[in-house]
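Troubleshooting: if your tokenizer reports a length mismatch, compare your output against this known-good record of 317 residues.
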Amino acid sequence: MKIAVCSFASLALILLPLTSSLSYAQTPSNGQKNQEKWGGQKKQFEKSFQLWLELRDQNQGNYSYTRKSGNSTGFSHTTTITVTNHRVTERKFESIGPSHPDGRPLDKNSWTERGEFIGTSSDKQAHPPVTLDQLYAEAKERLAKPIPPFHQGILRLNEQGLLLSCFVRDTRIADDAPATGVNITSIAIGSEKDSHLKASPPTFDEWVANGKKLPDGIMFTGGSPWFNESTGQKRTPREVYQMIYGKKQKTPSAKPTGPLSKPGGRKPYPGHWGDPPLRQTRDLRPLPGGYGTGSGTLARWIQENLDRDKDSASKTD
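Known-good structure output:
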């Protein structure tokens, strides 16, 4: 019986390609060996930035955005940043682990930061508490730099044309390649309170049937709408419903009985009287001489001129 003999050197030559393929990821065919520029994507960004400034000012700097991420191990992370009046007012984070083979509940971790506690969490998976203005500024800096070799530049906008992503990714890494730059998932313009007011309110019966829940984002003096601190008594469900969803009746303003003292809306003053006084009281009364209504200061000025004209006429006679 003959046994094939393989020398150690030959065996090493056979195993060397195998060990190399396991240790190093192959360079993808679409990887660029030289730096590249962003090209026409800069124009898209500038158009998006102008749109953002317009929408931001229309909504008084009230909005929120979400960043969702995951990895090949099955973990998912969600961060929601809320901005009110151009300032970050809340950061929510939730992490969900992969499913367990034995059917145990998923591992979850969640927390919320508000006020002076925003940014204090050491959880590196959470998106930093920054505004969209800061993200646009970061994206602008990214677009000013060339795309590094073997990297891909990505600029992504939502349906409105607002910025979602502006980052570079190493094409030599197959899984979980880090994205350097801006990368968020969605944007909601306007505050939660605004969206609540725009939605059609439920009827009283629907509100009671759903458990008389209070809408998110509404605050009441004293902390609870169910207790009237001024009377010391509890409010009925109907009263609370009216506080939340009821429309206030506008009281019509009382109309003046006489003509208002508007320049040009009454007969002109005689030229020899000169100009009426600039500083006048804020009261409203009938003016002498048929000049409508006006302040007490104006009334005295008119009466003095009328008396002066009367004295002059009597002296002439």
